[in-house]
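Quick start: read one record
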Amino acid sequence: MQYRELGRTGLRVSAIGLGCAMIGNSTVEYATRIVHRAIDLGVNYFDTARGYWDSEAKLGVALEGGLRERVVISTKTGAKTRDAAWQHIQESLQRLRTAYLDNCHLHGLATAEDAAERTGPGGALEALIEAKRRGLIRHIGCTSHRSDVLIAALERFDFEIILVPMNIVETEPLETLIPLCHERGVGVTIMKPLATGLLPAPLALKWLLNQPIATAVPGASTLAEVEENSKVGHGDATLSAREVAEAARLRRELEHERCRICDQCLPCAAGINIPEHLGTDVMFDHLRTMGREGFLAYPWSRDTLAKDLESRQKAIAAIEACDHCGDCESRCPHGLPVMAMLGRQLPAFRDMVGMYGEMLRT
């Protein structure tokens, strides 16, 4: 496995990490197998969050027995205030069964105003600073789906690590954000490396290893995916002429199909959470990558199935209530055919509801 410097933190992290949102959906036993296999393959950077179902708790169980000191744990708080963030830190430490967090991010900064609130007086950042002073966390980072918001955050505080979406289709961070991070010694970690399942893992990850980043954190729901992803970090990352051409083809093909999760399409009059369904829908991504048979056979957590059944039914009702006003498409800065994209998802959403009912009855 290749290892790279994580900015000025002094940490050396695997070029391919593990995004832990997906292990929050499986049983504890299977999640443990995924984490152990990742470590066996040289992965030492684990990106989790309190908002990723019970991912923190499952990661904590998996790292018992002496594995904790071999890995770097990065988690997140979406809190706005100091008091709420302090509570989140305590809960994360408990769930992860650890005395300290290697990194804690301010999670999902939505706008420059949001960043100002959370880094201002009484904001969540104050709790992270105090926790670092007490040795409860070692580094402080921030995440956003927007490069401009992360740039604004870096102007307000000297964050040590960022997490931002980047892949063959979404390359905006390369323009200003990543050069700024390198200038300031900020570690760059990458989410959505496969564009939520739209890109083939080997090529997408190999492309990223040719960019000025520390680590990419693809999720993995199966042992086979862990092995496929990790393998990229073990080999020669040089892109062949054929791979360069294929990456360019995918960029052209998906440029107007990939939601950038910028939230500019919101609010929706029908109440559809457009970025969630088109950009960050983990369960839909599972179905797309596993296929129907694999989806039905997977060792899902029953709690995950029950919760997603309820939210999926609400999503279907909202999409069916869409009156095609077109406001979302007029606001989308990337010209996506939002209404058509949501319509194409509906059959799969309905099928998922049926499968959930079938699995919950067994």
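The CA atoms of residues 115 and 153 lie 6 Å apart.
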